Amino acid sequence: MHRNVRPFVLIAVSFALSIHAQKPVKATQADRIIVIKSTHTMTLYADGKVLRVYHVSLGSGASGNAKQQQGDHETPEGKYTINSRNAHSSCHLALRISYPNATDRERARKLGVDPGGDVMIHGLPPGYDWIKAGTQLVDWTYGCIGLTNAEMDEVWKLVPTGTPIEIRH
Known about the structure:
This protein is of the alpha+beta class. The chain has three helices and eight strands, in the order αβββββαββαβ. It has helices at about 1-20, 100-110, 150-160, and strands spanning about 30-35, 40-45, 50-55, 80-85, 95, 120, 145, 165-169. The longest helix has 20 residues, at about 1-20.
């Protein structure tokens, strides 16, 4: 009988020791976001190290250029911050990007146009929550940065208000 019990005791003791040997996991938050439009990637960084990389959908504007004006459906390019959060967005959760910045406003003034606003990182609209994380979607937003709902849930937890975001071509 001792022979039958011994393996189970060894397994139980090994398991108990491994639990105590593990360091507690520290909740990490992003301190920087880089979006590369040409590769459709959004990378979250913490202390200079990659925390997560997501494939993103962008604005449905056909040119692929930086946002110039309200209604062009382009995603802006530049340096911004996450300046607010909306848990009741029309799309699943939303982190507001501080577009337009001073450069964007000056460019729009010179063109005689409204630069627009309300650029967000957000999940999918209602009825599309069946789309799974990692799915590569077409560019469907009005100039925002789109993720699946599961991905947006994760980003929501990792990105605090005030996080710098740089959007590059």
